[in-house]
Amino acid sequence: METILSLKNLDKKFGSVHAVNNLSFDIEKGNVYGILGPNGSGKSTTLGIILNVVNKTSGSFSWFDGSISTHEALKRVGAIIERPNFYPYMTAVQNLKLICKIKDVPYNKIDEKLKLVNLFERKDSKFKTYSLGMKQRLAIASALLNDPEILILDEPTNGLDPQGIHEIRKIIKEIASTGTTILLASHLLDEVEKVCTHVVVIRNGIKLYAGPVNGITATNGYFELNVDSDAKLLVSALEKHPSISDIKQEDDKFIATLENELSATEINNYLFKNGIVLSHLVKRMPSLEQQFLTLTNNN
Ligand SMILES: Nc1ncnc2c1ncn2[C@@H]1O[C@H](COP(=O)(O)OP(=O)(O)OP(=O)(O)O)[C@@H](O)[C@H]1O
Known about the structure:
alpha/beta; Alpha-Beta Plaits; 2 domains; binds adenosine-5'-triphosphate; ATP hydrolysis activity; ABC_transporter-like_ATP-bd; P-loop_NTPase
């Protein structure tokens, strides 16, 4: 695995606000990473630091194994961290030609990138005639002009309608399928779930989880159960079972969280042997949303 970016104990304080708190994680080549957290959790500040537009307070980050300076490394990075800004009376192609000059990229990249973001048909329309979604797609095309190794996006679907959101997510997946590494910040769990392979969950600048998206749900699940008879007997039997770590009552049923793998048949047999006949038994896995809420609320 080739490491594109490595953050080590990164810290940022704005006066008394601890925006980024001892944050460490690695970005490996070819994956799609989401930094997921509620508003104000430090996502934009983190992106700002790694892109050299925000000064860190302490800690470190290194691009491409630290073999080159951040200034050189950023030439291999495409990023959109602010609202896209182009010349309103110029067409998409005219705007991109300007970017090509700044980035020293040949003009023949323009058509290729406009096709990738589905704007080729509208390439000669003035920027001011574009919808918000089209403006965002043009920004993506612009960030891709120099064939960056990693594309960084801050809340890429903010403010878009469902169709616009769908298009942007589809394009992000297409870009990823060509081998470009992607790092995006989002407060939307479903966005990260749909688009990303890996996620760093942060709250108040603190990392709560970093790893594969499906790793958040890597638990043994829980049982929902109930009895028509004496509930105390049920709770006491569950408490004695070595595979059950927690029991709580929710509405009209009991929730028994599993510490180890245990099947519904096994728990049913165990309880029956203890004189308990269940009126309700379901084994469930927590949804990503439940896990995310548990992570962000309890820490
Ligand atoms: N320039 C600044 N001066 C002072 N405080 C700041 C500054 N930039 C960010 N902050 C504070 O740092 C914290 C993290 O903000 P940041 O914008 O990084 O969060 P975020 O997760 O990107 O949130 P959002 O999704 O709302 O943009 C917030 O409490 C914010 O108010």
